[in-house]
Design a protein that fits this description.
alpha/beta, TIM Barrel, 8-stranded parallel beta sheet, 10 helices, 8 strands, 15% strand
Length: 252
């Protein structure tokens, strides 16, 4: 049995039409499963309010955002205000996903501003860290992740630590079909926990990187892996349910 609550967080990225969203929840409702884990979904920003309404009726899935701005308001066309997210009842926000880091060039210093501002509005934050294949092969995994933690979580108020989650997502395993072995993932998760200065034992640390129903059990069996940040496998209700079922079993 896990000491900490197990979370399955679906990151839908820039996917799902209204028809697909409707079908997803119709299929989920047919499965009639009793969740013991935490099931969260981060849809496209344009669909957050729609999923909030659906989630209100089901009561079992929390809805969050994939990103937010480092400012609450102002002349920042196209950005998403963390104050606005909190205002509509969003529960959490993902910050520092590898796609934000690599495609949009977001640096640790910028991510730090986002983390602190989102937490100040009562949002739970999933802060993502991870190394590229080149960094892993050159033996830099731990130094890269330590740097991301130090700079991205700089000046984190101790009282906000309870609302912070970490997601380890090796960049080389995202959307590639490759997955870190459970042993590789556990090694990094244990390292991350050792570097947290506040509430280290209570902090939820997720694994993200081509997580699927056929590899989730081996990951959750590890002491420091508290769930998963899931991309593709969270888009299909049957796969998402299977992941949640494994996570619920891990909590028993």
């Amino acid at each position: 049995m896990k000491k900490r609550e197990v979370h399955i967080v679906g990151n839908w990225k820039m996917n799902q039409t209204l028809v697909e969203i409707s079908q997803f929840f119709i299929e989920m409702s047919k499965m009639k499963m009793e969740l013991k884990c935490k099931a969260w979904i981060a849809p496209q920003a344009i669909h957050i309010s729609i999923l909030k309404e659906i989630a209100f009726t089901t009561g079992s899935i929390q809805i969050g955002a994939q990103n937010c701005c480092e400012h609450d308001s102002g002349a920042y066309t196209g950005e998403i205000s963390p104050l606005g997210l909190a205002d509509i009842g969003v529960e959490f926000v993902i910050i520092g996903h590898s796609e934000r880091r690599t495609i949009y060039g977001e640096q640790n210093s910028l991510l730090n501003k986002k983390v602190l501002l989102a937490l100040s509005h009562g949002l739970k934050v999933i802060y993502c860290v991870g190394e590229t294949l080149e960094e892993r092969e050159s033996g830099q995994t731990f130094s890269i992740i330590e740097n991301q933690l130090d700079l991205g979580l700089k000046n984190l108020p101790a009282e906000q630590a309870k609302n912070l989650m970490i997601a380890y997502e090796p960049v080389w395993a995202i959307g590639t079909g490759k997955t870190a072995t459970a042993e590789q993932a556990e090694e990094v998760h244990a390292f991350i926990r050792s570097k947290l200065t506040t509430q280290a034992e209570q902090t939820i640390i997720l694994y993200g990187g081509s997580v699927k129903p056929d590899n989730i059990d081996s990951l959750l069996a590890k002491e420091n892996i508290d769930g998963a940040l899931v991309g593709g496998a969270s888009l299909k209700a049957q796969d998402f349910r299977a992941l949640c079922s494994s996570a619920s079993t891990a909590m028993m």
